[in-house]
Amino acid sequence: MNQPFAYIHPEAKIAHNVVVEPFSTIYQDVEIGEGTWIGPNVTIMPGARIGKNCKIFPGAVISAVPQDLKFAGEKTTAHIGDNTVIRECVTVNRGTVDRQRTVVGSNCLLMAYVHVAHDCVIGDNCILANSVQVAGHVEIGDYAIVGGSSAVHQFVKVGPHAMISGGSLIRKDVPPFVKAGREPLSYSGINSIGLRRRGFSDQKISEIQQLYRLLFLGGLNNNEALDKIELELAPSPERDEVVNFVRQSGRGVIKGYTRHNSSAD
User: Fold this and answer.
1) Which residue of the set 47, 82, 115, 118 is catalytic?
2) Which of 39, 81, 123, 136 is catalytic?
């Protein structure tokens, strides 16, 4: 475990078969689970909680203090789930008094130069492609994919199984199961390929498509559309998840695509 030229604070809790490559620094109040590989020139700062079988590549910085002027030195943490891969120069800041922690789930892939700010919660099996920038207090659901060089506004929520085009400016909430693209960011259909890969039946995908036809393409405002969905579509976990997501949205959800909200027209 103790490689030449790596510094590991004696109070850090490192599982016996963790590999720490040269020139990496691990501070106190750090916990790292079994089978994890810490590449060269990685910095793991106080408050990091890293799971089992993770891979953290050169230049990454985990659990640095938040880039938030309200941060007053409170004791907070940054959690990385099992089997997550963190590529070169990724930064994951720890939490503030708001949530006390930043969380990246299990089986995630954060590609090179991703930034995850304080108090974010990223679910399991998520992919953030190269240079995605995630501001504070963002929530990203399980199996969501965010394309490269996208920027996520603070407090935004991205629903599970959503797929967002590269280069997007994500200013509003993106509901579950959808594809989103264009500028301004808009509904672009159902993430049907991703859903099939995760075991959703054709019938279930068709039900989700009908739900979003009513929400985005029916000419109704959100409240009217949600009432119609609850009246006309049978209850299901997916229906209820979408309805609750839209009703509880703090920033408002993206719109359905029309020629009127396309900057290209």
Assistant:
1) 118
2) 136
For 107-142, write each residue's pLDDT tens digit: 999 999 999 999 999 999 999 999 999 999 999 999
Identity at 203, one-letter amino acid code: Q
Nearest Cα to Cα of residue 122 among 160, 169, 175: 160
Residue 119 is a catalytic residue: yes
Nearest-angstrom CA–CA distance, 206 and 22? 52
Question: Is 118 in the active site?
Answer: yes
32: its two tokens: 């790292």
Given a contact cutoff of 8 angstroms between Cβ atoms, the answer to whether 184 and 261 are in contact is yes
Question: Cβ(62)–Cβ(44) under 8 Å?
Answer: yes
CA–CA separation, 65 vs 227, rounded Å? Answer: 44
Structure confidence at residue 260 as a pLDDT band (50, 70, 90): very low
d(CA 132, CA 201): 31
**Per the structure block, which two tokens stand in for 156?**
């935004």
- pLDDT of 15-38, one tens digit each? 989 999 999 999 999 999 999 999
Q: Where are the alpha helices (DSSP H) in the chain?
A: 192-197, 202-216, 222-232, 237-247
